[in-house]
Amino acid sequence: GPGWLPEAPDRLFFLGPWEALREALGAFPGEMLEVSRGTPSLESLFLRLFGPAPRPRGGR
Q1: Is 36 helix (H, G, I), strand (E, B) or coil?
Q2: Which domain holds residue 9?
Q3: Could you read off the pLDDT of 11-53 as tens digits, one per residue?
Q4: pTM above 0.70?
C-alpha cells in the first residue's frame, strides 16, 4: 500500500498513487519543503522489500 520510503536524512519518497499522496501530506508530521515526482533508488526499494542486510557475526 501507500507509504513513506526514507531515501536520505532530508528526503522521503511516497510510494503510492498521486491522490493518496495528497491525503498523506495533510497528515504528515513535519514541514514539507518540496514535492516532485521522481523515482526512489533501487537500494531504498530493496531495503523496503527485504529489510536491512544482516550483519556478519564475530570478527571478519
Answers
A1: coil
A2: 3-50
A3: 888 888 888 888 888 887 777 777 777 777 777 777 777 776 6
A4: no
